[in-house]
Design brief:
By secondary structure, this protein is mainly alpha-helical. The chain is built from 6 helices and 3 strands. Strands 1-2-3 form a 3-stranded antiparallel sheet, covered by helices on one side.
Length: 150
């Protein structure tokens, strides 16, 4: 599986970028990358599987970037966030060029969370847990028919 997903685009082009990541990751297998919150568990499993081989991060950086972008897109679609390009100070703080802003204004770093899962492991670094503990998610009306994915 080719895991070089290229350079991250700006926030405005992330949805198309993530669609390409999902297409490539699901090309050969039936990975359920369906933008559901449940699919974030698969992201955790994939990172854990890569981690077991103890590769140098440089060898798996493209895959981690793609999985982090996918995680961010799930947050965008399910929690009402939107992609934002980080300014210089945020780039330095987060170590990433972009992240997601929640409806309440908080900024999160899903790309960095995937890297942390790879480097540190453990349940504290779970991307599914990140979503479930997110502050500032958009509230959906109980009868809106919108799937929240929880």
């Amino acid at each position: 599986m080719d895991t070089d997903f290229g350079v991250l685009p700006s926030a405005a082009d992330m949805r198309a970028y993530v669609a390409g990541v999902v297409d490539r990751l699901t090309q050969r297998g039936r990975l359920p990358l369906d933008y559901s919150v449940t699919s974030l568990r698969l992201v955790d499993f994939m990172v854990d599987g890569v981690r077991r081989g103890r590769p140098d991060i440089g060898h798996v950086a493209g895959l981690l970037q793609g999985l982090g972008a996918y995680t961010g897109e799930v947050i965008v679609r399910r929690a009402g966030a939107h992609w934002v390009d980080f300014g210089a100070e945020q780039r330095e703080l987060f170590g990433q060029p972009l992240g997601v802003r929640m409806p309440d204004g908080r900024v999160w770093n899903p790309l960095g969370k995937v890297v942390n899962r790879f480097e540190l492991g453990g349940p504290e670094e779970s991307v599914q847990r990140l979503y479930l503990l997110l502050h500032g998610r958009a509230r959906r009306a109980a009868n809106s028919g919108a799937a929240c994915g929880r």
